[in-house]
Amino acid sequence: MTTAPAHPLVVAVRGPMELLRDYAQLTKIRVTTLVVVTAWCGFFFGQRKSGLPVLTIDLLWALAGIGMVAAGTACMNEIIERKSDALMRRTAGRPLVTGSMGLAHAIVIWALLTFAGAALLAIKLNPLTSLLSLLTAACYLLLYTPLKKIHPLCTFVGAFPGAMPGVLGWTAARGHLEWEALALFAIVFFWQFPHFHSIALLYRDDYARAGIRMLPVVESNGRSTARQILMYGAALLPATLAPTLLGMAGLPYFVGAAVLGLCLFYFCARIWRECLPPSEPRSRILARTLLKATVTYLPLLFALMMLNSAA
After folding, report:
1. What DSSP assignment string belongs to 83-129?
2. Sign of the C-alpha dihedral, residues 261, 267, 269, 272?
3. pLDDT (0 to 100) of residue 144
4. Mean pLDDT score of the chain
5. Which whole number is the average pLDDT over 147-160?
6. Does residue 300 surpass a pLDDT of 50?
7. Which among 241, 283, 290, 296 would be 20 to 30 A from 260, CA to CA?
8. What is the predicted pLDDT for the residue at 16?
9. What is the pTM of this model?
10. Average pLDDT estimate for 30-34
């Protein structure tokens, strides 16, 4: 004779909202959104140089394809780094860590997003943009991602694929590379160092726990980190003035970019001036302030560039 259990077994049923949240985390939706916005800027200027309307169906294809490849790249990054993510508080809630999504499911999502996005770019726009999107993904996953466990040079290597969205937007519109695309690349390339070093300072303990060898993790005095933040923050300023020299934007942008650049450089210089060990509590305070400044700076800069061009 059997007896019923005192407490019935409860099976959690995941609804569509939970699945959407998992997909948003798997594809790093905030990072992917920044990629799409930056690509839009590149497409905008490419279309204007061609004398074509900036709002066309090609814009939809460009942003969809570039966004899909970026989302697929983020997905594979989380697949590769799922064990490291489990060791860090800031990533411990990701679906492959919690088990709310299976590995096979994530691999299917990666393949669909990456190759469908690349195919969309090749068919609807041009093969160059498709090829560059795949090369960007390969550089991010095959060079930057494994290097994070080996050497702090990973930040420099990762800055190359990280600076490509504007270039992809440009080639989607123009079909070839030009100096204006290089200007957009340089802006995002230099911006990434203050941005990512501030994140590494802020989450240094998390990165150390996971064995990720960002510069603030491997040095104890913080001097090299502060020096790089200052150096790349200084290089960013002239890079942001190049669009005016190339005819992409006018004098209002030039003045605005100079003001924004000097404001951001102030926050970079504060970290260099105090040059605190990364373990110091005040180092995290300064890093958080710099992170907020970098997150605010880039959208403002591109919005100003586009608005001045459209005026």
Report:
1. HHHTT-GGGTTSHHHHTSS-HHHHHHHHHHHHHHHHHHHHHHT-HHH
2. negative
3. 96
4. 92
5. 95
6. yes
7. 283
8. 80
9. 0.90
10. 94
Reported confidence tier of residue 7, pLDDT bands at 50, 70, 90: very low
160: amino acid identity, one letter: F
Contact 132, 73 (CB under 8 A): no
Identify the CA nearest to 71 among candidates 156, 165, 189: 165
| Integer Cα distance of 287 and 278 in angstroms | 9
pLDDT greater than 70 at residue 1: no
Can you list the alpha helix ranges (DSSP code H) found in the chain? 16-26, 29-50, 57-80, 82-85, 95-98, 103-124, 127-139, 145-147, 154-162, 165-174, 179-202, 204-210, 215-218, 223-245, 251-274, 281-310
Distance from CA of residue 3 to its chain's centroid? Answer: 57
Which pLDDT score, from 0 to 100, does residue 14 have?
A: 63
The owner of tokens 């993904």 is 137
Q: How far apart are CA 142 and CA 195, in angstroms?
A: 22
Alpha-carbon separation of residue 195 from 11, 53, 59, 79, 205 (angstroms): 43, 33, 28, 24, 18
Which DSSP letter does residue 148 get? Answer: T
